[in-house]
Request: fold
Amino acid sequence: MGNRVKITINGSVHEAEVEPRLLLVHFLREVVGLTGTHIGCDTTNCGACTVLLDGRAVKSCTMFAVQADGRTVMTVEGLAQNGQLHPIQEGFHQKHGLQCGFCTPGMMITAFALLQRVPNPTEEQIRWGISGNLCRCTGYVNIVAAIKDAADKMRGTPAPAGERS
Amino acid sequence: MAVAHGMGHSVKRKEDARFIRGKGNYIDDLKLPGMLYLDIVRSPYAHAKITAIRAEKALAIPGVLAVITGRDLDKYGLAWMPTLMSDRQMVLPIDTVLYQAQEVAAVLATQRYIAADGAAAVEVDYEPLPVVVDPKKALRPDAPVLREDREQKTNHIWHWEVGDRDATARALEQADVTVEEDLYIPRIHVASIETCGCVAQWDSVDGKLTLWMTTQAPHAIRTVVALVAGHLGLAEHKIRVVSPDIGGGFGGKVPVYPGYVVAVAASVLTGKPVKWIEDRMENIQADSFARDYHITAELGAKRDGTLTALRFKTIADHGAFDAAANPSKFPAGLFSICTGSYDFQSAFVEVDGAYTNKPPGGIAYRCSFRVTEASYAIERMADIMAHELKMDPAEFRLKNFIRPEAFPYKSPLGWTYDSGNYQGALKKAMEMIGYTALRREQAEKRTRGELMGIGISSFTEIVGAGPSHSFDILGLKMFDSAEIRVHPTGKAVARFGTKSQGQGHETTYAQVIAHELGIPEDDIAVEEGDTDTAPYGLGTYASRSTPVAAAAGAVAARKIRDKARKIAAHLLEASESDLEWERGKFFVKGSPQRAKTIQEIAFAAYTNHPQGLEAGLEAVAYYDPPNLTFPFGSYICVVDIDKGTGEVKIRRFVAVDDCGNIINPMIVEGQVHGGLTMGLAPALYEEITYDDDGNIRGGSFMDYLLPTSMETPRWETANTVTPSPHHPLGAKGVGESATVGAPAAIANAVIDAMWHLGVRHIDIPITPWKVWKVLRQNGVTE
Amino acid sequence: MIPGSFEYFSPQTLPEAVTLLQRYGEDAKVLAGGHSLIPLMKLRLAAPRYLVDLSRIDGLTYIRESEGFLRVGALTRHGDIETSDVIRSGYPLLADAARVIADPLVRNMGTVGGSLAHADPAGDWGAALLAAGAHVVATGPRGGRTIPLDEFFVGTFTTALQPDEILTEIGIPQSQKNSGGAYLKLERKVGDFAIAAVGVGLLLSSTGACEQVGIGLCNVGPTSLRAGQAEQVLRGKKPDDATIARAAETAATESDPADDLRGPADYKRDMVRVLTARALRLAVGRAKGGA
Reply:
């Protein structure tokens, strides 16, 4: 009783036969082998599983893989281009925006979507933008600084092709 | 070119490289060929007899291989396991469950989803038994005895006391002013964003068990496995525990949970790797809780504001098993640090542990063994006393602080504080926040009926357990270890007995070695967490990595430097005493051009070592700290209260920490930010409660309220530096200071805003409705 | 947390979807954004045998004004409403509400139609849209029908929709020059369901009296509630402080909250009073052309 899905992930097409109940996050982690997207809760609260779906940041634990059929997904593994870190990744490293690293992929994907929409965000806008992603280590101060740092670097430079909705 | 930065530099973290690329190696990322999955059936009842477990429907699902029960484990002597506190804990129950969400049976299947289906299909019949959730009721003689397996037919676990009972009673009687308050510190949960889990792999040919597991203490786990399962042929040299990247620990990944044990048993029985990953609700509902302390606190003082006596009586709710993770001799942890930053003449503390129908634990929540409980209680009480005496809380503290010249200071409860300058930290915090102006603003606002509060917390921590004369866990002395190998080309590998869960050890330990040897951080690979390679250590918790393991790293590096001196003398044809060390090289006194770098020396250690000296350049150190370290700080919080809704808004929060000498200021600041947020959380948001039937309330992230970026203020941090006199680097540890210090600052600020209305205390978490209620009671409304 | 098995359909047209619902009846569930349903399925509190995913049906995502109504397609996501210029410029009540539903990531998937059809009394759209005087359009085998939102919420998690009907559109009277609104939500933390929330929509006459007024209450009763008596207090009157206070007190008596982790019932009732007064003041200010 499998359903066939074809999902473009980080620029490559992945086809597979899946159970309809297979959550997108498990599809990414276990079928495709992209383990950078994490699971932190059962109740759509923590955002560790955040990916971009057709350019929007969504919680991949609250979505079936079949819902993503024919769509485009970007995960943390798709942030760096040609071995070059994305300014958001650089920002998190430079500003100590991560500690245990578990929430980091989801946090960076949310930041990516935020900066596409709001290239020059205020602290308040950043805090609002990441309020669906829980971090237990950093107290958010340095995450805000990291995103601000990335925004400063990114402004005036075009976003990587194909990730804009 | 790579540079040796050493201590005091904000070196960017080495571990970031994999985490920012999504290439971390967390437990659930591990996938082995033929791996099976475990899912757990849990009890809906808080106390019940199991009358039947029917597995047929589960076993009928294709892919379900086995349903494991307590009776199955009992055949192998594995239905129970020892806790770290000399109690025992059910792995799976044979006939009785003692708390809701307790493990009842485990389902083994070929796939994760099928294991979940299997767990949903197992049918269990229960006969409910009377439930006791209140530890005070549990200690009454008429309470049902919960632990029928014990010889002592009582819910009382232990009594622990320290200090002079009689002298303290006299001092309280003689005090001009006394204050007394009941303080409840609720049940909370560390809730690291990664839950717990493991992969157990039994190699039946080699007879070797490899256990990848989310543990903060891999070596201790290896020994525990050997002790518990030795009778099944598991010997310690055939057990390898690997702690992969850990997505946050905070104390929750110290204990052994039943799922780990069942996974090991299942792997041994099937010969296949078995993965068990708990979900969030299992994590919050069944894994070790923190706190749950019912404290009755009393302070005595002279009319002039001098504190004289302290007496704390506490009931500690330990749930169904005493599965705390304290050092063996300290059933209430280091709660006796509760005299805090003040110079008391007499003090007395007693704690009684009780069993209830709640999950076990009593572990830390990002704090050294019960230190937050102690710090919160003394800092709340100090504020109550200051207000009672109509003294400014800052002035009151400055008057009562242990003086800088009094260190090393012997506390009335038996600790010897290593160093401190409490006045310095508080004055700095007051200056940063503009204390005097804030008090003026508050007075002015009060005339308009606006509620604004200022709260101070001047905490003293006790970390770095610990000296072997007093500190052990299951008899294992609480030293820690480092092993450094310098390779011929001058690059080094360093392994430690601890395990980072986000603290950045790969960077900070490298800085310590770079500091001592002059080898650039980039040329040092730090490894932890694999018991087959790392030297034995007790792990990372209780802020002990810097005080104990980093000290071991420094000592090992100094051993290497001593040997390097011999080699350098040989290479330079000089006597050892004529050589001087400058970071990274030895040179001949008076002729700095005659020098050998550590890299040249390392090469010679393998290619041209002096006769009579062993080849190679490596060292191991097991560091047994002579004393604990006593980090401290002063925090000031400003809150505004919405009179209509009872909401508390933190306007500013200044934290001045003193953790002695600093290895990496960037990482210290990050630790303080995180610690403050985990101090904010229980002060205003987080709590796990139970109804009278023992049903958990707040068992998921829907109701267990981790602060988001919107609740968390922009923390303002600073440091003072008072080195530890006994630590090789003068460092003290910082990971938990802020979690210890922050709750009282916030609670004090809230009460400070309302003291003039007659509000004396509100138990944390201070939720909007609690504030609304006391405002109502005092006639304030919008 | 793993959901149970089900069969999945993703019809391309509305009639196809309706046919599937007719065929499977109570065993089928409609999937829109999935952010109410999928969490329940993961907890195995919901176990539909058939899921009918609407997301591939064209033409259900829009925000437009026509024939005196603001029309919002049922699959329009909370986030689209939050960022819509039409909403931001003319519908402050909806803009306020969209901004406080769950968290930004949930708002990127959750839909206004899905939220209403789920009929959780804690859902923000119910209270906000009751205040706005909204209706919904239900499409079934017999075509479309309009249901006033006042008649839509039958009970907790139950609506006036038939099992073979799909909520396809939400209509709201178009905003006018002197209309204003506000939605105020008190929550334990960002992303939480409301302790209590109050939506207010109003239209002031040329003399400054309340010509039309709607007050909706969130999470203080078995369904989203409309505070009809409080509206009555305001209707035809100038919203001065005394009238607002009286309306707010009336709204509080109309609420029917329960004790829970968010607080005791008396607290929540008082929060209805406080929030109603604050929302009314904000809405009046906006109707008069303030921010």
The CA atoms of residues 123 and 180 of chain C lie 22 Å apart. The mean pLDDT of chain C is 97. The interface with chain B takes residues 1-2, 4-5, 44, 103, 186, 188-192, 195, 261-264, 267, 270-271, 274-275, 277-278 of chain C (CB under 8 Å). The longest strand of chain C covers residues 194-204.
